Amino acid sequence: MLWAPLSYGFSSSGSGSGKHLTKEELWFDQALDHFSPCDRRKFLQRYYEFLVYFGPSDRPIFLKICGESACGGISNDYLSVLAKRFGCFLLGSS
């Protein structure tokens, strides 16, 4: 049996020019310890946002937490298809 890679209808052309809708890195100060009132240490938390599909303010927000995996931006994947369909705000955290 031959196996072909599944593309799910995605192509490298289109919105976001390929694998990512955006690769623009944004940063904010994040508390290192949320449970200690005495610990005021912070670190820079990287995140990505994609607002192109976001409709009225009552639309959902999709948050993708990359965790320990590599995160190079908002991926042009099935989550982006859903975001376009429902007018969502896409947010990625690493």
From TrEMBL:
Query: Keywords of this protein's UniProt record, alphabetized?
Result: Hydrolase, Protease
Which one Pfam family would you cite for this protein?
Answer: Peptidase_S28
GO annotation, biological process: proteolysis
One annotated GO molecular function is: serine-type exopeptidase activity
State if Signal is listed as a keyword: no
Q: What is this protein called?
A: Serine protease EDA2
**Origin species:** Pyrus ussuriensis x Pyrus communis
Lineage, opening ranks: Eukaryota, Viridiplantae, Streptophyta, Embryophyta, Tracheophyta
